[in-house]
Design brief:
Blueprint (H helix, E strand, L loop, with lengths): L1 E5 L3 H10 L4 E5 L3 H9 L3 E2 L3 H6 L3 E4 L6 H8 L7 E4 L6 H8 L4 E5 L9 E7 L5 H11 L3 E5 L5 H9 L1 H18 L4 H22 L3 H8 L6 H10 L2 H19 L1
Parallel strand pairs: 1-2, 1-4, 2-3, 4-5, 5-6, 7-8
Antiparallel strand pairs: 6-7
Helix pairs in contact: 7-12, 8-9
Bound molecules: NADP nicotinamide-adenine-dinucleotide phosphate (NAP).
């Protein structure tokens, strides 16, 4: 499989690195500096987008939304039987089909955790993708993180939950770290404690399973310390705040797409 990546920014470079053992990756970016970076990082680089098109079986579109019409106007004639994967936020399969003149499309929505090969990725197939190609996609992209097939109307909610999600998790970690500072730890120590607490709790839930509430009950012993903190979260409406946060983010994603 020869995979041509268009745009070597955050997403393009992360996926190039995550996929390099499974595909022969070729890169094109409009910026000479980015092309040089891709070369230094061990990838084949096309100087012109036409060369990328010739040298690729599948294409991966990772440019900002405003660049998409221009890029697709260059390549639409050459797409023929290639598969086009788009990571462009808010760009529906229908709109992509109009711009590219092909139904051989896969829409994905990853999050920034792609930078460390731990993305959460939503995907939807266009009508022209065969069963065999769907399997190839799943096998390729499973090395980039966790995959969730979604109906397109759910993409905006997914964008809020998983796309913006890391920002909310970072906010929580920072809040824990600040609380640690208030207790007398230096910030860096408090941050490290917070990161490892979140990381370990996620690993525990993932490995041992069960409902989060069951684990809360295991941590919060009767009349103990943890229940005092849980009471504060309940009184301040923690779950309601998070639900409203995701709702507002999802509404905004809907308005933009
Ligand atoms: N970042 C995220 O967390 C995230 C999450 C989900 C989806 N996405 C989507 O992923 C796409 C890429 O985002 P990103 O954060 O990776 O953006 P980025 O870091 O700005 O990368 C885009 C790259 O494409 C290059 N480029 C611009 N015009 C081009 C053209 N005509 N042909 C080839 N390359 C061109 C840019 O070069 P210059 O820098 O010179 O302009 C830049 O290197 C976006 O559509 C975004 O909606 C991003």
């Amino acid at each position: 499989m020869r995979l041509g990546i268009i745009g070597y920014g955050n997403m393009g470079s992360s996926f190039a690195k995550a996929l390099k053992d499974k595909a022969h990756v070729l890169v094109y970016d409009i910026s000479e500096e980015k092309r040089r970076k891709a070369l230094e990082e061990g990838f084949g680089v096309a100087k012109e987008i036409e060369f990328l098109l010739e040298g690729s079986d599948w294409l991966f579109l990772a440019v900002k939304p405003k660049e998409v019409p221009k890029v697709l106007s260059f390549i639409r004639e050459g797409l023929k039987d290639k598969i086009l994967i788009s990571t462009v936020a808010g760009l529906s399969l229908k709109r992509l089909e109009e711009l590219s003149n092909t139904k051989r499309l896969i829409r994905i929505m990853p999050n920034i955790n792609a930078l460390v090969g731990r993305a959460v990725i939503a995907y939807a197939f266009g009508e022209g993708v065969s069963e065999e190609e769907k399997k190839t996609f799943l096998s390729l992209f499973s090395s980039c993180g966790s995959l969730f097939e979604l109906d397109e109307p759910m993409f905006d909610s997914f964008t809020a939950l998983a796309g913006s999600g890391p920002a909310f998790v970072f906010k929580f970690i920072h809040a824990l770290a600040l609380a640690g500072v208030k207790e007398g730890f230096p910030y860096e120590t408090a941050k490290a404690i917070a990161i490892h607490t979140v990381l370990g709790s996620c690993e525990l839930l993932k490995e041992l399973g069960g409902h989060p509430e069951e684990w809360i009950v295991k941590v919060a012993s009767p009349g103990g310390t943890t229940i005092e903190g849980i009471k504060v979260l309940e009184e301040k409406g923690f779950a309601g705040i998070i639900m409203e946060c995701i709702r507002q983010t999802s509404e905004k994603a809907k308005r933009l797409s």
